[in-house]
Structures
1.
Amino acid sequence: MRKEQRKRIVDRHRDSLKRHGYHPNALYWSTREIQELRFEMLAGIGIVGGDSLLDVGCGFGDFNSWFENLDGALDYTGIDLSPDLLAEGGKRHPDVTFHCGDLFDMAFAERSFDWVILSGALNEQLQDDGEYARRSIERMYALCRKGVAFNLLDARHLNAHDLQSHQPEEMLSWCRGLCPDCALQDNYLKNDFTIYMRR
């Protein structure tokens, strides 16, 4: 990701946090219910309490507290480009590990985590025909021991020039080139889909 793209993302989230405070709207989710529906889809890959998990584009780290209320504590690590979101997240989740930066800034060893998840962090339009998204998914898969779950915007139902969307079947086919055991979930929101990649 180019320097100016990173700056745009950081600036947008600083502005949204000032406007909305600690709220899903600061992360560009319409409601907490929609945010948590996406969490439910990600957790559906098979995540259980006690697992280690890397959350890419973690925002405030809300997946951690949501999951803890559902099934117990995770060994949770979050990454986000926004220092402002992470500062707020650190106040609310002082017991978890946060890293500020891009996935490619981190020197994690391969298979460092049971699971790697991503929710909404690949929706930024980068004008690269999805190349950054594919590289990110490939890196996420290299870091997992059990699997990867991520969501993307569905190009079949979304026509927004300022957001990056994808054709679900095309992305599923590409993922199967990395991992034979992949599954598509696209029956929960009209403009969103989730892919599971299991080792």
2.
Amino acid sequence: MVLGANQLIETIAFGIPYSYFPRYALSLGASVASIGMFTSSFMLMSAILSPYLGSYSDRFGRKRLTVIGLVGDVILGAATGLVPSWEWLLLVRAMNGAATAAAMVPSEALVVDLAPPDRIGEASGFILACGMVGRNLGPLFGGTIQWFSISYGLSEQASYRVPYFVDAGFAAVSALLITLGIKESRSEYLEKIGGPEDRKRVKIPRAYKILLVCAFATGIGEGFMRPILALFFGDVFGAEPIEIGFLMTLSGFIALLASWLSGRASDRFGRKAVIALGGIPARLLGSAIPLGPNFDVASRFYVARDFMWRIYMVGLRALRADLAPIEIRGRLFGLYRSFFDVGDIIGPVMATYLYDKYRFQTFQVGGFNIPGYGVPFYMNSAIGLTVIAMLLAFVETEKRANRIN
């Protein structure tokens, strides 16, 4: 419950600037073309440092590194609201990516360390659900704070700064929660993971290497959807930003139920069954979105896709927990995050390039007219289905009874 609250608070704080960050960067002198660098720098630092931070958590304990990362979030959150220029903002954002990775990677491993062996899937689903709530509430929360700030007489630029101090306050609350609410005995922890020589003898399982490829493809899938949905629904159906935003928020909350229930199902029926149940329909529904004849039908495809996607994500995270030996769990979770983040960086670039290149074309396939603006959706689904097939064919998991024992 404490780690779930931490995930909720951290993702609310992470999502606070979504609704206005580009305007803040522009007000500090950044160009429109450079806006993408701010997100990329954050994700890149996270991708580079996550394996090292995970290894440190194996050596020194999960709780300690999580709290250090949260304290870093407090300092850098406040610094983001004080920067004098866009160059400083870019530097602080990159550093914040490192601090956030320091807070999140060990806390993900800590969930698995503390959860009962027969309820790891349920715990993973619960944590993912908390994160989804935070991601959905964050932009609304940040936009509301910014609106109240400017309504009470602050300048436009000052109104963009205020929410970051709230962000820093959230991180401070989260650090306090972890410090007081999590018990991690140093002696018990060292007994579980062994010494440095024990960790060196533990190799990365072959099945986990396949899982890293799956994480990369999943990151691409997550990154594909964010920019493309807004472009697609606006260009093809003339949907307004408020309609698109409402659709995304509604979809996120509907998918909450999938996160928790699929975690429990994975404990009972196995990880691969849940991955197949969620992943295959999610990829097929993703391809169906651009084929929808109107906004209502296409949005229903999107909501159904998002629901099945969350089932798939929970199964994948639970499988990650099963395949990562405790001696190097932090390092492996860090590697997983790195592969996912790299995919999440590449995904938006690929998606917008393909969309721009093919959006005005039409392809004849077996007597049917296939719109070119759907190419990113089809490519994303093809990549995802290929990787899911690899995972189902080549990754062996223990029987549930053995895993519990």
3.
Amino acid sequence: MQYTLRAPAHLHTSINLPASKSISNRALIINALAGGTCSLQNLSDCDDTNVLVAALRDMPDVIDVKASGSSLRFLAAYLSMMPGTHILTGSERIRHRPMKPLVDALRYLGADIEYINQEGFAPLMINGRELEGGRVEVDASVSSQITSALLLIGPALKNGLELVLQGNIVSRSYIDLTLHIMHDFGMQADWTDYNVIATPHQTYRPHSFIVENDWSASSYWYEMMALSDDIDNEIQLTGLMDGSRQGDSVVRYLFSMLGVKTTFEHTEHGEPTTVTLRKMRTRLPRLDYDFVNQPDLAQTFVVCCAGMGIPFHFKGLSTLKVKETDRIEALITEMRKLGFVIENINDCEIRWQGERCQPTMRPIDTYDDHRMALSFAPLCFKFPGLRINAPFVVSKSYPVFWHHLGQAGFNIQISPDPESGGE
């Protein structure tokens, strides 16, 4: 399937953003550890959360997490301490996501986990058993999901958990998000040093919990506002929090440098509210930023800055090589189709100095990566008739994205992919 996109002349819309899958998946593991006694409201309806809901509900012998990295890591830790034997697997790309630091740490804690095929990667055979807990070191340079997976089960371990993070800690904001959610369920779990987190043995309290909407999803609407030309445009986004613990809430500050103003409706402290986006007339001439704590925003800002003609130098992107696709190479390839020459520096930095080449305007490929479709779609403001292949990949995190674009006045023409013969 291929979509051809044309942006509206004016943007004046209200969008009910999807719930955060990052918060949903953490809350689901906590609820399982609490015996399913918690009331979870506003759970995400995306693929990543649905596979975890089904796995925890049905607990089949073979659990296929499809393309959900967080489900893979969280379930590996959870199943290691639950009675029974399970095989944990996923899509081809998921079977190339690094698991060794997590498996090594779980084995040190007493887990019985075997690699079925390739050492260091799923599928895994997990024989659940009671784990003693205690002090363990883990490589924190690979993925924050590994750290979060261990933290979530920490209170349920017989001796609690003292987690020592080794190497360059990536996506620290997601680790803090995990701790914040654990606090909401009554847990003591805190940093005791710059690289050490400790949680004693405790019992998760039954709790009514409302999942906040997704700041990551908001970034694409910020991008639309930045790329649009009408100074009178206005977008309202519901269900976000001022002071959110979601790392990607930094978009409000980053986009203020690209000419987008954020206004929060007043509510009681800590409650979700409506955010209004408007255009400002000033913006920075270039943007340099280290995305080590928000790597999922990198595609949005690479595409947006280039589309606005703003040179950039982005660092802290080493984890992009092992996401849903090699996001660095995917960005370089697809941006060249539109005439932008993006530079890869040591597989951990991306730079654009304004270099251009002859555009081919070939359709944008999405590489089974939801964020490729989501971040490129707003470029139709600058490239009317922009074409995107395999657009349904957005179901991984934002299944109603195309519906929301239609609601906002975008024209979407649907056709089979002429190169693949359609889906």
4.
Amino acid sequence: MNYQKGIPPVAVVGGGWAGLACAVKLAEAGLPVHLYEAAKQLGGRARRVDWDGIAIDNGQHLLVGAYRETLSLLGMLGTQAFLERRPLELRVPGFRLRLPRLPAPLNLAAGLAFARGLRWRDKLAAARLMHYLKERAFRLPRDETAAVFLSRQQQPANLVDKLWGPICVAALNTPVETASAQVFCNVLRDSLAGERADSDLVLNRADLGLVLPDAAAAFVTGKGGRIATGCKVERVQRENGNWRLAGPDISYGRVVVAASPARLPELLAGLAGADRLLEQVSSLAWQPILTLWLRFAKPVRFPFPMLGLGGGQAPWAFERNDLHPGLVAIVVSAEGPHLAQPEEALREQYLDLLVAQLGPLPPLLDWKRIVEKRATFACVPHLRRPDNLTPLPGLYLAGDYTAGDYPATLEGAVRSGIKCARLIFMDES
């Protein structure tokens, strides 16, 4: 559908996955879109990075089969060919869980029955927990930390250490000791307790720029929209019933703010009616993600593309020969002592863990450390996240930090952007 003449454009401030998802859906429906991104490239916290001429990712942003909105969006944009889909398999030292291609819930039952590194009491406790949650539609009577909830459900320490803890840190980017039990249960509901394919791991086999930002920008501009990178919006101001973007100095009837929540106090400063949502944003705490990129002289052979290394803070290694032969990414989620370690010492520690899993490695040619200090919000209990629909007419919020069932994931970002587009459609009708 091409843009209908006479319809005023919608402004989207921020070119991360939330802003891009919103812009694509608006453009698909025939609404004109002007997207502004302060950085020189699109993608936000899931973007392409140049490393001496090699396109890499700023981190490993894993998808799962339950991420229907994201996978549908990528299917529409024609980039699903860049994804590799595998049945869930978790491999860490002393533990292995693989879900077979059986109908749900038989796949989970069989996977637990044949899991290595779990005692029978662990397996029965895991099955008992999933049954308990299904009986209650995965809604808890009250939120609490995941650690307290799992203890209350008499989950053995070995099971928490091998299965529940790694899932919690990987999905919520928050340690089990402080993570929201309700959001953790939401993740279990939509993955392990969903359809068979919902638990699949979906790995990108091209840099993140190719997976969404490049295709989204081409789609929007192909529909007549505008994408402005390196164009910072300084403030959103109310003026004569419209919203004026200081910086570009253009006014719009509707604006979707999809910028980092850290920028909201600056962007919305002085706006009457914005106090509550700014208070909610100010209550958010943040968790980092560290990615160590290693480039070897030749490809490193993995038994599975994603491999747990064990050790402190549960690092995961990813084989990334798709980007360049010999590339390996090691990812460590959330806060921890690893962030204070000297870079060389951390590299040697993780190389030793990799050797322990894979045996002798090819010569290391180069390495790079990337830390996203504000990778996600800390997904703690009783967190009140701002809604996409603000009290200010014509102003919307998009981002993985907004209200929803999911933690700070790509699916959470995409869902929020699509929800903003749908709210605007409702205003149009």
